[in-house]
Amino acid sequence: MKPKPYLVWSKREIDLSDPWQRKWYIQQVLIHGKEEDVAQLDWQEIRRCLPELTLPTHIRLLWETYFASDR
After folding, report:
1. Where would a tag sit more exposed on the chain, N or C end, judged by fewer CB atoms within 10 A?
2. Is the pLDDT of residue 71 over 90?
3. Cα 45–7–18 angle (5° rounding)?
4. How big is the CA angle at 56 (ends 55 and 59), to the nearest 5 degrees?
5. Do 67 and 47 contact (CB within 8 A), yes or no?
6. Rounded to the nearest 10 degrees, how much is the dihedral formed by the CA atoms of 49, 35, 40, 63?
7. Residues 6+ positions from 13 with CB-CB distance below 8 Å
8. Contacts of 25 (CB under 8 A, 6+ apart)
9. Are 53 and 27 in contact (CB under 8 A)?
C-alpha cells in the first residue's frame, strides 16, 4: 500500500499484513487522518488494538467513550 503523505512520512510502502505496521498505520490514521481515512478502518480492529496504541489522551478518550457507548 502506498501511504498518503499526510499520514506517513518515513516509508514509501506499508505492508498491512505485518501486524506491527498495521497497528502503526491505524495509530497514524487516528492521529493524523482525515474523516475518510478513519472511515476506511476496521472499527472492530481499532477496538481490539486500542490498548496497544500510543495516542494523545483526547483521541484515546474519544474512542474509549465511543466503544463504551456501543455496548
Report:
1. C
2. no
3. 45
4. 85
5. yes
6. 20
7. 1, 2, 3
8. 3, 7, 8, 14, 16
9. yes
The set of cell numbers assigned to 31 is 492521529
Separation between Cα atoms, residue 65 and residue 1, nearest integer Å: 30
Residues 6+ apart with CB under 8 A from 8: 14, 25, 28
pLDDT in tens, 15-60: 889 999 999 999 999 999 999 899 999 999 999 999 999 999 999 9
Distance CA 14, CA 22 (A): 8
Question: Grid coordinates standing for 26?
Answer: 491505524
pTM (2 d.p.): 0.83
Kindly state the DSSP code that residue 1 receives in the 8-state scheme: -
